[in-house]
Amino acid sequence: MGQRLAAAVRIWLSHHGRSALASLGDLTRTPLPSIMTIAVVGISLALPAGLHLTTRNLATLAQGWQEDAAVSLFLAADLDGPKAKALADQLARRPDLARVRLITPAEGLAELREASGLAEAVDLLPDNPLPTVLALEPTQALVADPAALATLRDALAALPGVADARLDTAWVQRLHALLDLGGRAAVLLAALLSLAVLLVIGNTLRLEVANRRREVELMTLVGATPAFVRRPFLYAGAWYGLLGALVALLILTLGLVLVQSPVSRLAALYGTEFRLAWLDARAMLALMAGGPMLGLIGAWLAVGRHLASCAPR
User: Fold this and answer.
1) Cα dist. 145→29, 67, 68, 138 in Å?
2) Which of 18, 109, 147, 151 has a CA that sits 20 to 30 A from residue 312's CA?
3) pLDDT above 80 (res 123)
4) pLDDT tops 70 at residue 234
């Protein structure tokens, strides 16, 4: 029993292996139509994958910015230096703050003169209009919770001697909202273009069935089962999907190579370095498995219906 089962499995694998290789050979015998179909499938798969990759890199960049989140406390003008230093020491003992930096008006004016590039205009000011500022860096656990950051800002704004409190991550939160919108758009685009892949592969194999109508009729006459007749077309659909997924990977790789240099130059202008990330394991698996799966589904839907019309009467 075990030997017969093993022999049956070997025969089954042999038949499927020959069908897979034969269907790949059929694609190479019509290179131009095959290349055009594979290119369309590859572009359709690359578009949602590229949008996902873009949102992933922007999310990584925003995470790096958010790690530098800070609360700026603008102290009242009548608060002198010793009182400002005492307030800074008091805040430094809080467990939800990782670092507290006291910026005096003179230090703030020097930073403005250096960062703005308007040193001559700054020197024309009759007096220093800048207040004393406490730059506060929250802990990492707090940075990950926007609501907790807002609560911290409100609590610090109510302290005596504090004129105003500003949270420097509001724009980062807006960016995260846009990234969430981009992620949903990628899912919607993937669904629409997956339907396009089904239609393209299905229509291609429908034409292939029509061109091989006589062959299908002869196979049916000599006793071939519907599964045997359908098998090479299903493998052809899987090949279209797999090769299209590889083309999508090639497009994404070329896109990253072309974009990395401008991104590096832009990051260097801000005194930092940023390397574009590649697809994560889950996205890579979805792309490489989704392409052949879409090809199989498209082939099954198109071929099943048209093989019935080719059956001899």
Assistant:
1) 59, 12, 14, 11
2) 18
3) no
4) yes
